[in-house]
Specification:
By secondary structure, the chain is mainly alpha-helical. It binds protoporphyrin IX containing FE and 2-acetamido-2-deoxy-beta-D-glucopyranose (NAG) (3 copies).
């Protein structure tokens, strides 16, 4: 009887492992096949940061876009072709840049361990490094993603928009297995980077028929945004930083959010619901609590599975 039940238990455990085996990620995935993978990606990110302080924000947003469209399968990296317009040329591509950092890491990795490390894994590692090298937490990234062969511009319409309210955000996240807690923690990614005027124009011009400016926005903050982004803005790259310390990964974003000094309606939406507002206050209060939650939610987001089947040789082209 004893023997029988432990035998059965063993069988169930093995079956579960096999069932997961096809697409489960693991932290030691490249231990035998490419042990230097993490340090090579870190080097590429560090090197790029020396010349351009906007690189970390770009890499973090790149991973978010990758995971929200077709799962984390490197689809955000594919170039358009003669017959197909890719995600990077689709709507909402406005802030995507620094693809060259992924290319540089990939080139080194192809020389060291050809055909082994997926582009999707490089993006996940680069996003982690971007956070850590900006003064944020570090964590162990589960690896083993496969690259997809498709990238379709129109699918980027499925990304959450900066004009979204709390229920639209909740729906967008829950469709991908992410909770309201994940929404609040991951929105903290807006501690890094910049937004173009077009992304928050809805809040500072013609907000509603009776109010030109979103009344939930701090008055003088709104006025300063209106000066940088007039109604008919002609300056190409005009915009605003997402928080007052845009190259430091800290909890400033949440503090400003409580003061009505967030940039997007989707940020402000987090304080329109009692549950999410409580979390915002907690993260504004404690950088440690924020970092802990952010790491947990990043690992969840970066595990959204895609339909990838290959390890691309060039991150911009399907094999
Ligand atoms: C909750 C839904 C989200 C919405 C609606 C949203 C929307 C946006 C928009 C509109 C921009 C600015 C684009 C531009 O004008 O250049 C932006 C920038 C950014 N987002 Fe989000 N985002 C969301 C979630 C996230 C998540 C989950 C992350 C990562 C964890 C993230 C990281 C970033 C970063 C780092 C930037 C700055 C990019 C740069 O400066 O290059 N966002 N986001
Ligand atoms: C991908 O597109 C970029 C930008 O248009 C171009 O510079 C690059 O050469 C392309 N790469 C490949 C492999 O097609
Ligand atoms: C965004 O898409 C437009 C239109 O296809 C394209 O001209 C532009 O280069 C793209 N931006 C990036 C960063 O790829
Ligand atoms: C959010 O916007 C949608 C679509 O406009 C609307 O149906 C919904 O009632 C709004 N929810 C909240 C909480 O405002």
């Amino acid at each position: 009887m004893e023997f029988c039940s432990s035998f059965l238990l063993g069988f169930v455990v093995v079956a579960l492992i096999n069932w997961n085996g096809s697409n489960a990620l693991s932290s030691n995935y490249y231990e035998q096949t490419c042990p230097m993978v993490e340090s090579m990606v870190t080097n590429a990110v560090k090197k790029a940061m020396l010349n351009d302080r906007t690189v970390p924000a770009a890499l973090l947003r790149m991973h978010f876009h990758d995971c929200f469209i077709r799962g984390c399968d490197g689809s955000v990296l594919l170039n358009s072709t003669a017959t197909n317009q890719a995600e990077k040329d689709g709507p909402a591509n406005i802030s995507l840049h620094a693809f060259y950092v992924i290319d540089n890491a990939k080139k080194v990795l192809e020389a060291m361990c050809p055909g082994t490390v997926s582009c999707a894994d490089i993006v996940a590692l680069a996003a982690r490094d971007a956070v850590h090298l900006s003064g944020g937490p570090s964590w162990v990234v589960p690896k083993g993603r496969k690259d997809g062969r498709f990238s379709i511009a129109s699918e980027t319409r499925q990304l959450p928009a900066p004009t979204f309210n709390i229920s639209q955000l909740q729906q967008s996240f829950s469709q991908r297995g992410l909770s309201m807690d994940d929404l609040v923690a991951l929105s903290g990614g807006h501690t890094l980077g910049f937004a173009h005027c077009s992304s928050f124009q809805n809040r500072i011009h013609n907000f509603a028929t009776t109010q030109d400016v979103d009344p939930s926005m701090h008055q003088s903050f709104a006025a300063s945004l209106r000066r940088v982004c007039p109604m008919h803005n002609k300056v190409n790259n005009a915009g605003a930083n997402l928080d007052s310390t845009p190259t430091t990964f800290d909890n400033r974003y949440y503090k400003l959010l409580l003061e009505g000094k967030s940039i997007f309606s989707s940020d402000q939406a987090l304080v329109t619901n009692p549950t999410t507002k409580t979390l915002v206050a907690k993260f504004a209060d404690s950088r440690q609590e924020f970092e802990k939650a952010f790491v947990e939610s990043m690992i969840k987001m970066s595990s959204i599975s895609g339909g990838g089947q290959e390890v691309r040789l060039n991150c911009r082209v399907a094999n």
